[in-house]
Design brief:
single chain; mainly alpha; Multidrug efflux transporter AcrB transmembrane fold; 2 domains; two-stranded antiparallel sheet; 11 helices; 4 strands; elongated; SecD_SecF_C; transmembrane; cell membrane
């Protein structure tokens, strides 16, 4: 572009940006003409030691007929301050890109926006959809694992709904405590989906059992124990068996996990803090679901919904069942004596 054309387009661009001072120049055309830049002296200006650093921001081509260089590209810098919130940065970047796109079409300029945090801004803009897709895929994988061991449609739906409930609770509490959606919180929330499976699957699996096996001491048995098969015919028996089997271990696991993660809270960094909050929330909500909500829900469903015989396909019909044999408590020395 030539000298006059460059200055005219530059003035239009800056006026539309709303920068102070340009409107005053536009009111008086004579003053604008007197204060126009003489591009013929631009090369001399850039050769001065105090201004030579501007050469990196300007690209010149061959001189035109009026002995002035042709300006082919330049960098226009703007500064903003007191902006620490990422949402404000994202809004600013979107506004700049909108302005650049509009002027590229209207003024026939190739305007590009660069900012040192633009990579993270693009990441933030795509983080919502990425997190949702990852959440759905992770939930699908966890549901598939539950399906292999609990081949029941009702058990699968209850397990998936419980995992979703715990995960959404973790999302909500992290948001209430001031954490925004970023790569760290996304990783922490996806981790919470995997942790929540333990609090859900064991309760549903044990509640589906139709019989339980207990061992009693018996002096007449070679092993010293005898096996007793107890049928679970009603919801009360199923609930008692479930809480006796997994209630105390689940409580121990949840509390110990929270205690193990607490030392990370002493590190005054963002990432460890996010993981501390996420683990505490998922363990608390997991214990609440596993020991309170799920037992209440399972007890209020019809008995056939939680029966081990309620399998919706036959290939995995034996997955939810197990056989317990009489334990051999004899030691290695006793076995050797019996052989001799």
């Amino acid at each position: 572009m030539g000298e006059d054309d460059s200055i005219e387009r530059m003035n239009k661009f800056i006026v539309e940006l709303g920068i102070d001072g340009i409107e005053k120049l536009k009111k008086n055309e004579s003053n604008v003409e007197e204060k126009q830049i003489n591009l013929s002296k631009l090369e001399q200006f850039l050769d001065l030691p105090f201004y030579s650093h501007w050469k990196a921001s300007i690209k010149l081509q061959n001189k035109s007929s009026n002995n002035s260089p042709t300006l082919s590209a330049f960098t226009l810098s703007f500064v903003y301050y007191n902006v620490s919130d990422w949402q404000i940065r994202i809004n600013l970047m979107q506004q700049w890109r909108s302005i650049a796109s509009r002027h590229s079409k209207n003024l026939n300029l190739s305007v590009w926006v660069w900012e040192e945090n633009s990579l993270f801004v693009d990441q933030m803009l795509s983080l919502g959809s990425t997190t949702f897709q990852s959440f759905v895929l992770t939930l699908g994988c966890m549901s598939l694992v539950c399906l292999l061991f609990m081949p029941s449609l009702f058990s699968l739906l209850i397990a998936s709904a419980s995992i979703c409930s715990i995960s959404i609770g973790v999302f909500g509490f992290l948001s209430c405590f001031g954490f925004d959606l970023d790569p760290v919180t996304m990783a922490a929330t996806l981790m919470s989906i995997g942790l929540s499976v333990d609090f859900v699957s064991h309760v549903i699996y044990h509640f589906r059992q139709n019989v339980c096996y207990k061992f009693h001491k018996c002096s007449s048995s070679p092993s010293g124990f005898i096996e007793q098969c107890i049928p679970l015919t009603n919801k009360k028996d199923k609930l008692k068996y479930t809480l006796e089997s997994v209630g105390w271990p689940m409580l121990q696991a949840g509390i110990s996990t929270m205690l193990c993660i607490l030392p990370l809270a002493l590190i005054n960094k963002y990432s460890p803090t996010v993981f501390v909050y996420a683990v505490i929330f998922v363990c608390s909500l997991g214990l609440l679901h596993g020991l309170v909500f799920l037992p209440c829900l399972l007890c209020n469903l019809p008995i056939w919904c939680n029966s081990q015989q309620n399998n919706f396909f036959g290939f995995f019909s034996n997955f939810g069942k197990f056989q317990v044999y009489e334990l051999d408590m004899t030691t290695i020395e006793e076995r050797k004596e019996q052989r001799n």
